[in-house]
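@channel sequence for tomorrow's demo:
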Amino acid sequence: MSRLSHSVEAASRLLAGADLASDAHVHELLAITYDRRRMDLSDLSPKEQGELIAGRCEQLQPSADALAGRVSEAAQAGRRFVAKLGIDPTGAEVHIGHAVPMLALGRFQRMGHQVVLIIGDVTAKIGDPSGRSDERPPLTDEDIARNLRTYRDQVSPFFDFARAEVRHNSSWLRSVTLPRLIEVTAHVPVSMSLQRDDFRSRLSAGHSLSVAELLYSVAMALDSVELNCDLEVGGIDQFLNMQMCRKVMEICGQEPELVAAVPLLEGTDGTGAKMSKSRGNYVPLTAPASEVFGKLMSVPDRLMEPYLKYLSEWQDSELVIAAGRLADGSLHPMDLKKILAGEVTAALHGVDAAMKARNEFVAHFSRPKFAGMTDLPTVVDVSQPVVAVVRALGFAASNGEVRRVAEQGGLRLVLERAGDAQQQAVLSTDDTRRALAEVLESGFDSSAGDYYLKVGRKLARIPRPR
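structure tokens (generated this afternoon):
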């Protein structure tokens, strides 16, 4: 039995039978999964490696079996399997969404493979080739070095930089001649680049594309040719660019790399938009433990499984156990969310800091039951939009004020069930336009209990759903 299997067996016993509201049991579970983040995975068979990587990818091309075969071929040839990830050092602040591909790359590292980080300093100095965005301005060497230092410091809890090979693509792209570029691009159909949704939509809208934009993916592909790598890790938004890498490697007489495309993490606001600094729906890796824990506790329940899947080392069998206990009512969603928040906080700050943040959160947010309050106003008509309900209660003077409270996270549904802690759902500005009855139906998994509408510090009772 592998080291990973032993760890999963120990964690599964806790997940299946322990009281996961207990601090002692949660501490034990976090300690097991925290150690797993640094576990030596070199005792996994090629087949097990392929299955582990495939289970945390949105696309693994061509397949898990192909990955297992390539790992075996490298071993038989007496060489190390090579996996690469390209980093574009355009920003200094990193969030947990950026950690997803680093976690994937780190698994290859812990399997004993050679891992290479490509720093895209050539493209960083060019900036946005379309000239349409100010978010990617041309950078200087000093900018790149500074951003790379901060990136390395922030992502280090998820990846061991000391065991990785770091290369700057300027060391080979600067020497690419025009004849060489034409020789390669002569075999690349333009249709490959035009498969990108953003390119197609711009052309459909009557906008133009520059030749530089089309060449970007070819330049990225030359990184793979230089390394003659076995596999590339990247976000699913880079999938077509990684397909170009496979094509150019084939043109250059090399065996095309495999592609491990990981998902883009959805933001904490639950709107479906990806996590990004511009939307404010992110968790910065530099945040203190209490802030990380609190931000993770604010995510919708439906994000717990994908966050655990892509931000931790939980295995599918463990996720199944947790889902089963949620379904039969033996595990409260709030308790699982505290474990999720603990997982990410522990990764950044350690298990003890995560447990301290957990205790601080519980102490801060534990409140007396609302059910005993007799002087609360009651919502009259749940068929009205939330914004109208709030104004009818006298909790806001205008629709704009309601939206501002929502933007600040102060508009919430509260569910109290006998013997349970309060469960809260933060309402978005979009929710304010929906009927309160509709929001109630989608806000919680169960309708059993007493409902309240919280607007800042003001509270109103909602009639029980029929």
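heads up for whoever presents: The longest helix spans residues 211-227.
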